[in-house]
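Annotated sample (chain length 542).
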Amino acid sequence: MRAILKTLSEALSLLWRSLDQARRLFVNVLFLLLMVGLLSWLLASDKPEVPDSTALVIEPVGGLVEELYGTPDERALLKLMGRHRPESLVRSIREAIRAAGEDDRVKALYLDLNRLGGASLTTLQTLRGDIEAFKATGRPVLAAADFLTQSRYYLAATADEVMVHPMGMVLLPGFGSYRNYYKEALDRLEVDWNVFRVGEFKSAVEPFLRGDMSPEARQNRQQWLDELWKEYRTDVAGARGLSPEAIAAYSNSFHLKLADHSGQAAALAEAEGLVDRLATRDEVQDRLIELVGENEETHSYHRIDYLSYLEAVGRPSAKSRNVVAVVVAKGAIYNGSRPPGSVGGDSTAELIRRARNSDDVKALVLRVDSPGGSAFASEIIRRQLELTRDSGKPVVVSMGSVAASGGYWIAMSADQIWAHPTTITGSIGIFAMAPTFQRTLGRLGIANDGVGTGPFAGTLRPERTLPDEAKAALQSTIRAGYEDFIGRVAEERGMTVQQVDQVARGVTGGGLYQAAGGCGLERAGRHGRCFEGPAMLRGTNF
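Output written by the structure step:
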């Protein structure tokens, strides 16, 4: 009897504990739901509001990029560690300016350029088009900065009114391309740098083979730098009512002109017509108050930054199931998977594959902004692009500031390739490098010796001399890769192998040059217009 009562007591005790735990779990879940709801309400209540009369402030921080580096979690962690990479997403700025163009509450556009870092001319030209579209609405665009660097000034010149601090300056040094050359240092260290390449213009290997730039590389690089500088001067001069020659004279004779103005760089910029007025920060603020009114709480002008504005009005979204997928291939190309901000052969190929298999996606735009990288990874990506094209979905490649070497490889299977006039593309060539350090180690008294079953055993050990058999094999592989490269270009772009070889050999050039006959590009145009491509190819509106 006692055993039965004990068993019953234990069962009831277990039941009570279970009910008590269930009660606690229910209360905790209910509390958690209440907290989430409260937090959501607080966040919703903090949603920015757009004043009836306001200036939209475009204040980019750091470099202008088409894809932020890393995942959101990685960026948050880097920020906590003080290693955050300042970047501003071009797409967000463009969306904000476009939305403001249709929003009567936005009375002015203010370009606060003090924190803008570097940006490619291609990116700057894209933003310039959106700024000009806003200007066409008849509302003013102001630009100001303490110092106007070359990138900052390009955007500023588009404004109706450009202001620089009285102690600032406008600095337009032009474009340059310089690098270190290591041949003499490698010779002194007795490092053998084995290089295998096809294409005399493939200059990436030159720093290890020469003490200076080769005539071929110098000619090629000078050509496209001159193209970029001409584009820059033409755009800026047109916006400011000056001549391209005046911009060149300001750049080349800056030291002489500065001396004529007693070293007052800001006064020089005003005298040359590069800026409209010199203004301190408070004077810039007063000017904006004149345009959009004063905020009585902050005693500043009515303003909303572009990120808050997008949060307030909402980002554009697809209104139909006919979606054009955009995959960004930004950065160097590596094997395997990589985070955003660089290109992984596997990860980028997977994005393209998912777009192809999605019923909602009716076309694909691949945005390429890459100097190249792994040939194998490039082929993995290109194959997925080819499969997408063959599936019947239109594929258009939009080239950014650079789409060279592997960047061109991944693009060539598209239905159409659009290059910006300032895109640097081409560089159709392949190379490989294999340094060995046997002589360096020998000076330290270190020798490497052993046995193998054949001439290729231990071939790629960096402390051993590269055998002639291995050198021949590597050169044959590189030659075959180059022939495969130009053969695919010829097949995909409707050219002969001979035609491709004439413009290949590692040559790079601007988008206008390539569209005129360089690499079989269909168009030289802005990124925004590349979305016309899918519609033209299949007669479908997206």
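Annotation: Residues 323-538 form a domain with the 2-enoyl-CoA Hydratase; Chain A, domain 1 fold (CATH 3.90.226.10).
Annotation: The two ends are 81 Å apart (CA to CA).
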